[in-house]
Amino acid sequence: MATDILTAPTIVGTATRTRVYKNFIDGEWVEASTGETFEDRNPADTREVVGIFQKSAKADVDAAVDAAKRAFSKWRLVPAPRRAEIVYRAAEMLIERKEEYSRDMTREMGKILKETRGDVQEAIDTAYYMAGEGRRMFGPTTPSELPNKFAMAVRQPLGVCGLITPWNFPMAIPSWKLLPAIICGNTCVIKPAQDTPLSTFNFVRTLTDAGVPRGVINIVTGFGGRVGSPMTEHPDIRAISLTGSTDVGRTVGTTAAKTFKHCSLELGGKNPMIVLDDANLDLAIEGGLWGGFGTTGQRCTATSRIIVQKGVYSEFVERYVERAKTLRVGNGLDETIEMGPAINAGQLQTDLGYVEIGRSEGAKLKCGGNRLDKGDYQHGFFMEPTVFIDVDPKMRIAQEEIFGPVVSIIACENLEHAIEIANNIQYGLSSSLYTRDVNKAFAAMRDLQAGITYVNAPTIGAEVHLPFGGVKATGNGHREGGIGAIDFYTEWKSVYVDYSDRLQKAQIDRPE
Length: 512
Hints:
Layout: E1 10-12, E2 16-18, E3 23-25, E4 28-30, E5 37-42, E6 45-54, H1 58-75, H2 80-109, H3 113-133, E7 141-143, E8 149-157, E9 160-164, H4 172-183, E10 187-191, H5 197-210, E11 217-219, H6 224-233, E12 237-243, H7 246-258, E13 262-266, E14 271-275, H8 281-293, E15 303-309, H9 310-326, H10 345-361, E16 364-367, E17 371-372, E18 382-383, E19 386-389, H11 396-399, E20 406-412, H12 415-423, E21 430-434, H13 438-447, E22 452-455, H14 482-488, E23 490-498
Parallel strand pairs: 9-10, 9-12, 10-11, 12-13, 14-15, 14-21, 15-20, 19-20, 21-22
Antiparallel strand pairs: 1-2, 3-4, 5-6, 7-8, 8-23, 16-19, 17-18
């Protein structure tokens, strides 16, 4: 059992007792080599410091990698079904701790309780799925081309994996990376986003309580240049998995290539939802609201573009905007709230900046666009749900990832025109189509350039047992989730067993 996660409580300000969290290296909670820390504050009420975390540096990464490397020599030999049993126990523990962890997540990330409960549930679902994969890491057996010879391929772990996770799904996405990695026999060093480290700590604490041995999972907190870069450059890290921006992904991918690391990049999105004339408008409007404003638009799969056929454009806009204006914005711990704050001041300024960009480009601001900073909002990063209409597909607000509650509505002539608009973008993560015509649905599934396509559902809502990821600038071809994750965290070894008791020279000895 690891030592206590916390130091003694520290007085912060005049009234708040704030816990100080340490790095988790080789089964011990240790301070950063720098002696520096940073605060994790509630974006809905910045007066609250959720926790104080270590501001780490290269020396801390090196210590974590050394621990993971030592642990790998033993962990890789633990039978995969035994590794899976530990993960299964962790899933059961997460169920018991779900409400506690959900409330912690709302405090540090801001999204509403219904969504943070879903985030924890996704980690539970991933744990159950990956526990099953502990008995399913199948490899092919195949006939040899020579007599008395057996041929097969088996999966083997990579070694130490470096995991860099974002703030918007601070338990779900770590679960996507950590669980398949350890099920496959790898060991890990994880850097959680500096805005939301507590949720990753809660997740790893649960895995440790379930029996994951010391050194198998290590946490190093801090900032990208001082922690993420040393991880990407470290010669003993054999795989890097990043969920983040396209710009950061380009840097990570280039650096990882220098030491021939496996590298999985899940990056940006600018996801289109197409609404055709024959769509169920009630369903499409609710889906567009959930896709556009769920998680305050802070999802790589957010419905940031709605492409509506001209026959229903006016009605859709009127009803969509009317509903957007009624969304309740506030502190996500209030069960009646429908949209929380932006994650931090920088993201809020980015969101507001794109409102000005949209106005300057000539798009029509139909609702929202303002910061909420009066009364209960004054200590948080709140913004109104924002809708632009009559947007030209070439405008920046229709091309660039905003990552906030800003939705652009674009008119189209027909399905073919809608798909052309949808595909004319650098990204290709998620997409959706609302129609009652099965022929059009299948044409869209074929022609939309995206890693994910939904029919009669918004662009959010992926399930853990299917591959998750995109095309074009959204990533580098790898997938999270399902068998795609097992593929990334293993490599193939081909095995030949010759029981002929004589030298056979493969193709040379082929009989004529």
